[in-house]
Write a structure and sequence with these properties.
Blueprint: H1 8-27, H2 32-51, H3 55-62, H4 70-78, E1 82-84, E2 97-104, E3 107-114, H5 120-125, H6 133-149, E4 153-159, H7 166-170, H8 173-185, E5 191-200, H9 201-205, E6 212-216, E7 220-222, H10 226-234, H11 240-247, H12 251-256, E8 262-264, H13 275-293, H14 298-310
Parallel strand pairs: 3-4, 4-5, 5-6, 5-7, 6-8
Antiparallel strand pairs: 1-2, 2-3
Helix pairs in contact: 1-2, 3-11, 6-8, 10-11
Length: about 325
Amino acid sequence: MDYLDFEQPVKEIEEQIAKTLQLQEETKVDMTATIDELKRRLIETRRHIHENLTAWQRVQLSRHPNRPYTLAYINYLTGGRFLELHGDRGVKDDKAMVGGWGLLDGRGVMFIGQQKGINTKMRQYRNFGMANPEGYRKALRLMKMAEKFGKPVVTIIDTPGAYPGVEAEERGQGEAIARNLMEMSVLRVPIICIIIGEGASGGALGIGVGDRVYMLENTWYSVISPESCSSILWRSWNFKEKAAEALKLTAKDMLEHKLIDGIIPEPLGGAHTDQEATFETVKRYIKAAIEELEKLSPEERINQRIEKFTSMGVYAED
């Protein structure tokens, strides 16, 4: 288990538990009472830490190396019954963007999302979850396929942003994202978007226009990362904590400003502490959203979707 700097008290107690268990095994002395007390302290410590997290600490949790990524969610949600589809039929298959058909309790669903990679080699292979234009065009191709067959779309968002390289701009990065925004606005099937980690800028929004947009509790969604914001405003990354607070990028902030439809709770300590429980919670939210949205006609869904997004940021002067 990897620990973040503010999780050191948790690490210390868990190490004490491990040592006590080892001592009990070696000496054959019953230490149940001591172990139970340490476990109680562990829960209290975790609760105290996570009830008082700053915006920057939630950003850190969203990037936790043990946090599950997109394919882990898809494999669990589908029970392994997932057929990945490849390519944008124009340039290549973007490994940072994955998608394909999956069965969610027997229901056909099109899953699409960014995949960061679980180790250094895979992160390079997946370009750290930063999709090129081909990735967004592949995503749109799969969405249109889902529309053709009348199946709901579930997008899973976890990206530090769209790839900013020269070659991406040459192949139309901005146009590809803009087209996705336009097409998703009027897609005739239900769209559910889940932010499971980082939701950065247009890279996230390129697959983030949905009837229901949810954020996991310890995720962030913003036009810019705290580090980049700090470097622009203060010419240094040293003010990233201040930038994170000012950006109002947490799930709570997003819900208060009516930019998302709900917050998906995580296990105490974060999604990485109990991945299966996290997957089950996400599954319940997705199934409930699909059942609710399928009761509406395509026209009703589209009108509500457009109304929701066009009303964001609207204000009236006195």
